[in-house]
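PROTEIN DESIGN WORKSHEET
SECTION A - STRUCTURE
LENGTH: 262
TOKENS:
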């Protein structure tokens, strides 16, 4: 196997993806069980440039976080209907060591016969098949499990999450694949200009004065929205935008609603 063209899997709870081979900022994450393709390595070999299988995000991870897998493992993991975790924290027994994993992690359990693994897993927690699409009530339930998670750039887990990471991971758990960036997410589904009769679980997008998309949240019932702004919180949503429940000040201007589920 060409060491510069191998594949990897995340075997830690959360691994940051950096924008640059040196320093840079965190702009995404991979969670336990997610697989990726190796593109290249930095000159000092301390960071590895990867492309994630799920959403094609490209960035750099620390070499110490890389666990190499075969191309066969990568292909099987990419196409098998594994389980995705629905508990805020679950545990995996891996190589006789307990690893805590966060909601949205992938565990190699499927209804089909598993390929030969060089590791043995024991999973303790709740999970569902990745491909199983659920309704708006399920989306709402999963979204509310992230309540009070701090807003952190590039995060997509219950202990640090960004606005578009929140949208992507909630929908991924619910059975829907959305891109990583806010702009690409806003191109998925059917656009509607009004809040009238929008069911729970759909996505609201918000813009700045120039019309650029800057924020998103998941519509709840009773004119409410859950979104990551400082922390994952529930505020009031109307035709103008987000009215903060505590300050009664509008924080975001509504652009549109995208219907994914219905």
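SECTION B - SEQUENCE
RESIDUE ASSIGNMENT:
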């Amino acid at each position: 196997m060409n060491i510069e063209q191998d594949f990897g899997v995340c075997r830690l709870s959360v691994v940051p993806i950096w924008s640059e081979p040196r320093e840079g900022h965190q702009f995404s994450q991979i969670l336990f069980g997610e697989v990726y393709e190796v593109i290249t390595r930095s000159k000092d070999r301390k960071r590895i440039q990867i492309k994630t299988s799920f959403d094609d995000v490209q960035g750099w991870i620390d070499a110490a976080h890389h666990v190499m897998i075969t191309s066969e493992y990568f292909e099987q993991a990419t196409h098998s209907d594994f389980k995705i975790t629905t508990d805020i924290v679950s545990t995996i027994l891996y190589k006789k060591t307990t690893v805590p994993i966060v909601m949205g992690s992938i565990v190699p359990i499927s209804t089909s016969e598993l390929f030969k693994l060089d590791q043995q897993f024991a999973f303790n927690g709740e999970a569902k098949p990745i491909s199983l699409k659920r309704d708006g009530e399920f989306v709402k339930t999963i979204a509310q499990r992230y309540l009070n998670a701090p807003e952190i750039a590039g995060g997509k887990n219950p202990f640090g999450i960004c606005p578009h990471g929140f949208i992507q991971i909630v929908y991924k758990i619910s059975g829907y694949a959305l891109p990583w960036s806010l702009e690409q997410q806003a191109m998925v589904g059917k656009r509607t200009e009004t809040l009238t009769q929008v069911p729970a679980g759909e996505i609201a997008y918000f813009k700045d004065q120039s019309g650029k998309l800057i924020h998103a949240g998941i519509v709840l019932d009773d004119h409410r929205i859950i979104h990551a702004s400082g922390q994952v919180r529930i505020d009031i949503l109307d035709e103008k935008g987000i009215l903060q429940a505590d300050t009664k000040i509008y924080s975001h201007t509504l652009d549109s609603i995208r219907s994914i589920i219905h």
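SECTION C - NOTES
The chain has four helices and 22 strands.
Residues 136-259 form a domain with the endopeptidase fold (from Nostoc punctiforme) fold (CATH 3.90.1720.10).
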